[in-house]
Amino acid sequence: MPDDFAALRQKKVSVGMQHNRYSPMSDHELMLEVRKSDADAFAELFHRYEKRLRWFFHVLCRDIPLAEDLAQETFLRIWRSRESYQPTGRVEGYLYEIARNLWLNHKRDQSRRPRTEEGAGESVLERVAAEAASQPEHVVLERERRRRIEAAIGELPESLRIVFVLSHFQGMKYREIGEALIIPEGTVKYRMHEAVMRLRETLKDWEV
């Protein structure tokens, strides 16, 4: 399997356009085929989870190109480590464990780099202001509401934010999140409760 995602996207389209022998497979069965270096099975896995992983990263970083890059890197890591895959636990949890580790590594690397783009936000604000001037008031208010919620989520500590995103945006159960993050279910419940309380405090002056 090449590391070129242009080829993978093309294969994903062909897989998604027709009912193929991989479509009825469970995630576990699919991963067992991927472990055998079956590129078509991998394309089906990509088809099933690529959008969800992109959204996972997008909520964490609020950067669409970066979210896409991180989602693709997650799949590259899945492919490169395919032979070591063991069918224990849910495949979804396995994918998010890799995604979560990739995100934490990215954050660690970012913290070590000097910040050189302090002025980058000005052009963004100018574009937002120009766009707001041409939009109906309710559209502007809804966009501001979403921006504040996303900003509040972004201010959560990393351990709380990942749990909140997996639960609220990915719809995963606490047990599944625990499996993905390798933490007890009770810890997941505590972190989710703490995340919700902090968000309520941050957004208490804004009707959401």
Radius of gyration: 19 Å
- Average pLDDT works out at 79
Please name the fourth-level CATH homologous superfamily of the largest domain. Answer: RNA polymerase sigma factor, region 2, helix turn helix motif
Class inferred from helices and paired strands = mainly alpha
Describe the structure.
This protein is mostly helical. It has 2 domains: 1-112, Rna Polymerase Sigma Factor, Chain: A; 121-208, Winged helix-like DNA-binding domain superfamily/Winged helix DNA-binding domain (Arc Repressor Mutant, subunit A). It has 10 helices and no strands. The chain is globular.
List the helices and strands and how they pair.
Elements: H1 5-16, H2 27-35, H3 39-61, H4 64-80, H5 91-112, H6 120-133, H7 137-154, H8 158-169, H9 174-181, H10 185-202
Helix pairs in contact: 1-3, 2-3, 3-4, 3-8, 4-5, 5-9, 8-10, 9-10
Features:
208 residues, 10 helices, Arc Repressor Mutant, subunit A, 2 domains
In a nutshell, what does this entry contain?
The chain is mostly helical and 208 residues long. It is built from 10 helices and no strands. The chain has 2 domains: 1-112, Rna Polymerase Sigma Factor, Chain: A (Orthogonal Bundle); 121-208, Orthogonal Bundle (Arc Repressor Mutant, subunit A).
